[in-house]
Amino acid sequence: MAQTASPSTQLDTVETRSSLRILTYAGAIVAFLIGSGFATGQEILQYFTSYGYWGVFGTGLVVLVLITYVAVEFLTTGHREKFDRPSLIFRYYCGRHLGVFFDYFFVLFVFLSFTVMVAGAGAVFQEHYGLSKYVGGIGLAAVVGLTVWFGLDRLVDVIGKIGPLIVVIAIVLGILGIIRNPGGIADGNALLPELDLTRASSNWVLAGLSYVGFCMLWLAAFLTALGRTAHSRGEAHSGAVLGGVSFSVACMVVGLGLLANIEAVNGTEIPMLVLASDLGPVVASCFSLIILAGIYTTAVPLLWTVSSRFFPEKSLPFKYLTLALAAIGTLVGLVLPFSLMVNIVYVVNDYVGILLLTLMLVKSLTRTARTRRA
């Protein structure tokens, strides 16, 4: 007679699988948010470090609370509602007419964000390797296009495992940047008014809100689709919290590391490579590969999101559109410098994201009140 596992063994197996799925969801969130802006340090410099202590900790706290809320909402709503199309999440929160606006605006913004990833890859090749930015941009677009060709299941599998690694390495670099120059944090904070830094907004509060604004435009359809794969609401909720908190803490640590070395990183396209270069050329070269991996982990779901808006995943039109968008994105992304692309594309779209955040909060509060009355 075949032996069956004991109830306790079966429960342990179920819990282990659930924990792995939670880690995968968290990793996918982190990997999606890393992108070229975070991995290079340009995003952190403009949204966090440029405001000094208030930017690192104040903006960091705003981002921690709101990104975690947004991730939980999108993942759990995707799990509960199981929309036919992920973009229907906008009609759920915004109503029919505004939902249509957000749907089309979202597609445009996500595509422009993909062009920023192309620009980031080009900047790495140009600034670190001394090669043409076209080599990096075209290479990234080609690899991303082929990855999206294979569909979301494989996509989540890949990026969910790369994301946590990149965050750990970025945190280590940030900590080492602080340790090697501990007095640099106070000196950097005092020096900020004298530096000609590009800032995302007029103050750290708006910077935090606008940062969440553009991040949530990225996350909307991707996490809604990802939420459908969760086996329970608890898995979706836990994965979202872990992902949101991990990413926010990483932003603050990296922000401090850049502040401690603000004179060195000011005016560079890839600030994080400056921190890595202080540890030696081998470390810098290794980290340049990490940056490219971070760009890849965000570029893939961005491109997938746009293609899936128009055609079913894995269909022939989906695949052809993916390749066409990758080619167009390459042309657009290599026109302007990377730092300028970050500032233009993200900042212009931040406030539309803030409007979406407001509508989400209203919907959440209304839903909670209705549930309590029932």
UniProtKB/TrEMBL annotation:
Coiled coil stretches, renumbered: none
InterPro entries noted in UniProt: YkvI-like (IPR038728)
Segments crossing the lipid bilayer: 20-39, 51-77, 98-125, 131-152, 164-183, 203-227, 239-262, 282-306, 318-338, 344-362
Domain of life: Bacteria
Keyword line: Membrane, Transmembrane, Transmembrane helix
Protein name: Membrane protein YkvI
